[in-house]
Each structure stands twice: as C-alpha cells, then as structure tokens.
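Quick one:
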Amino acid sequence: MSITDIKTMLSTLIEYEDSFITHTIPDLIELIYDKLSRTFQITTLIDGNSSPYYNIDSACDALYIILNPTKEGL
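Output:
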C-alpha cells in the first residue's frame, strides 16, 4: 500500500469521525480513529499492542512500515 493510499484512508476516518469505523487486516493490524482523543489507534494483532498516533503523518509512517516491511537479510 502506498503512502498516498494510506493518507487517503486516514483522511476518510477523520471525515467520518461520527461513525465507528475499524480497518482490519486479518492477523496483522486493526486501525480506528478516536474522535474524543483525536488519535489514530493502531493495534498489532500478533501481540495485541496498541499505539496512539496524534496526526496523519505519524500514523501514516507507522502503517507504511507495518504494511511494507523491509526484506533485510536477503
């Protein structure tokens, strides 16, 4: 998924902040936008860790890394 696609997805979550929308990639992540705290919550489903991100750019960077892991050691 490209940076542009990720930013579009995050912008859509803000646009529909009055609705509860969860983006899930099975066995990888769950993403929501919390209207009250104005944060993106990214939960990694492998370990259950949840991290808040306070703006689109930081959430985008985190998602890009998760979705496009480097292939080190090849």
